[in-house]
Design brief:
homodimer; alpha/beta; Rossmann fold; 3 domains; 8-stranded mixed beta sheet; 20 helices
């Protein structure tokens, strides 16, 4: 059996994701499609609207054969660590290829870009450092650094976050996992950040935005497979919410103001005196949105701040993050769900794996899993007590088997 | 001008408290009645039902001339530290006497008890230690130790928490503040712990219990001065709640489970492996009451556990508590409110005071005030954002002047 991997968040799983899975399967000629998915918190530093289990079920019903969880410490990180965590785990799972969506749809553009960057790495790094020191936020500093090294104008557009991620995947594969072939398929319309739904293929951002005010409206339902609609509905019936940052604001507020500046400074992402700004700002802000608007500066991007706030909520220290992120090998691969194909693939692959396969977190004693538990506890904190207990119990049970 | 002190919680200020103030004024012959009152959290380890400001206003309208705040670190402590904080501050305020309520109403009984205890202190201490080591909770161990040293059967009843407190006050005065005369007045009916209201003089416990289910019922209103009824009504209109432990349970749950065992162990009151029991128990408990019931053992009294939970909520470490509690002198006296009499007394007394008089916390830089701020933040965390901001703003404003 051959497997191919996709790196995903499924927040929520929509028609575009289903198309991506179908096309990736066709392109890779794989028997088994493995999705590695962020858990409770996502790359942009946001809570997922529904828990990993409801997203996993939708993914399995939409074409994934095996769903793994990308540990939170990789999931809530910039593209380099995010890709590292995801690509390395998929490589350990023995995939032949990893297939990502791009506007371009041509893998050679990414390979060329990676080669150009590799051969200009020292100049790029220096330029990046200079721009960061001048107070530019990372995306802008990075764009300027690309310009400085004369990155070809007709190459891939590196102002697009999805292209930066794609390039990051390719770099991981070409540098560390030459056995894994990078593949890309062309995205059908809809930018990652599009805010309105205008077809059956809509961005997750636009879908979430519509859901926030309109619930499971006709437009939302048109953009989602019916299994996702069922999962979203079920989660809300069960817990009464779809998670958003505003739910967490009372906890975040309480946490930031009951920590000392010294404690805040130890948290992953709290640098350059941000602790004072956090405490000063949170006192006056009546909502998460108000808080973020008051917090944001040119230097701190929205995404970077949100990631830091996730780390504060969970209480992840710089020391913990450093230790876990510097490991060159994934600590384990955690299975969230599978169908028969996924199960057969796992059976075949298990004996060749160099890292433990975890189907229930209590099977392994590792600091990464302790942190995962805290991430889950933080994520479910906003639920009523009964749902909270029920959802935390779910964390220790067997994967979903379809 | 002469002043007398009372040591209070006013949760809420009721007819019995008003009677206590009147009688104390008469007995002490004082011009100015100074009440030192617990702030957001109380001696039994509970949040006050309404904030200190609404309780202060009711106290001023009910006969107090000057209201001071007993810092949280003393307020949420067993009788020795509680008395130490309160008596020392009142002594610094220059009171001639401190008058407390007792069933007995005869100060000589307390003085005799103190003398008997002083002369048997080493045997008492040893007996107490033995019983504690045998696993008895403090109140029971203490009762057995009194028995062991042959404490007279016809002396004051030391199984009554209020008598233990009274004795503690007397001991503080006789040992460290000989200039301050201990006085007691007889309580009119109603035990401290009575759970039902059966007259105009009812216990605060019974009043809170009735309020919880019946709101400001006729019976509640009969047991309270009308100014207290107004203050309770206003607080609820403003913030929508009367505080109780259940409001804090989501925060406590989140806090306990996102701290490591090592961090929990550093918290004031978390001893003898309690950290493991806390984490294990909180996971399964759907409410504060369920949590407490599962947590309680013979060794840990309800009160001791609740105090520890307050320290966890606020994040007070053993080190902070030790430093502050070992200070032999109060760090400051904080004024919450006063009438003209109180103001005149302050004017007269100010120049003779050895400790800073604080009318707004920003006037002084002291670790005690940092901790007070965290206590307030924790207390107000359960309010909606607008009330939370408004109430925290109040903390930095001038005292109530009636």
């Amino acid at each position: 059996m051959h497997a191919s991997g996709v790196i995903v968040e499924y927040n929520p799983f929509h028609n575009g994701h289903q198309y991506h899975l179908q096309q990736s399967k066709r392109k890779s000629n794989a028997d088994c499609m493995i999705a590695i998915m962020s858990g409770p918190f996502l790359q942009r530093g946001e809570p997922a609207i529904v828990d990993k289990w409801h997203r996993t079920r939708a993914a399995l019903q939409g074409g994934a054969d095996l769903v793994l969880e990308l540990p939170y410490i990789y999931a809530v990180e910039h593209s380099d660590y995010f890709s590292q965590g995801a690509v390395r785990t998929l490589a350990e799972m023995g995939v032949d290829s990893i297939c990502f969506g791009s506007e371009d749809g041509n893998i050679q553009s990414f390979i060329d870009a990676d080669q150009y960057l590799s051969s200009h790495q020292p100049i790029y790094d220096q330029a990046l450092r200079t721009f960061l020191n001048e107070g530019y936020a990372f995306p802008e500093a990075s764009r300027l650094a690309f310009q400085q090294i004369g990155f070809p104008q007709d190459g891939i557009d590196l102002s697009q976050p999805n292209n930066i991620l794609g390039l990051s995947y390719v770099k991981q594969m070409l540098t560390y996992h030459k056995r894994v072939e990078p593949l890309t398929i062309q995205r059908t319309s809809s930018n990652y950040h599009d805010e309105t739904i205008d077809s059956r293929i809509a961005s997750a951002t636009s879908i979430r935005k519509e859901m926030k005010t309109e619930g499971l409206s006709l437009r939302v339902k048109e953009a989602l497979p019916s299994s996702t609609v069922d999962q979203l509905r079920e989660y809300k019936t069960r817990t009464s919410i779809w998670h958003g940052w505003e739910h967490y604001y009372p906890f975040l507020h309480y946490k930031i103001l009951t920590m000392t500046c010294e404690e805040l400074r130890e948290i992953h992402g709290v640098d350059e005196g941000l602790e004072h700004r956090l405490q000063r700002t949170v006192k006056r802000a009546a909502s998460f949105e108000e808080f973020m608007k008051a917090l944001k500066t040119k230097r701190y991007t929205w995404t970077r701040l949100q990631r830091t706030l996730v780390h504060i909520l969970i209480g992840t220290t710089k020391q913990q993050a450093r230790q876990l992120l510097l490991d060159t090998k994934p600590a384990y691969a955690r299975v969230l769900g599978m169908n028969t194909t996924g199960r057969n693939y796992l059976k075949q692959q298990k004996k060749d794996m160099d890292i433990p396969l975890v189907t229930q977190p209590q099977q392994l004693d590792h600091p990464m899993l302790d942190l995962e538990e805290r991430a889950s506890i933080s994520y479910y904190s906003v639920l009523n007590a009964d749902s909270r207990i029920e959802r935390m119990d779910r964390e220790y049970k067997a994967p979903i088997i379809l």
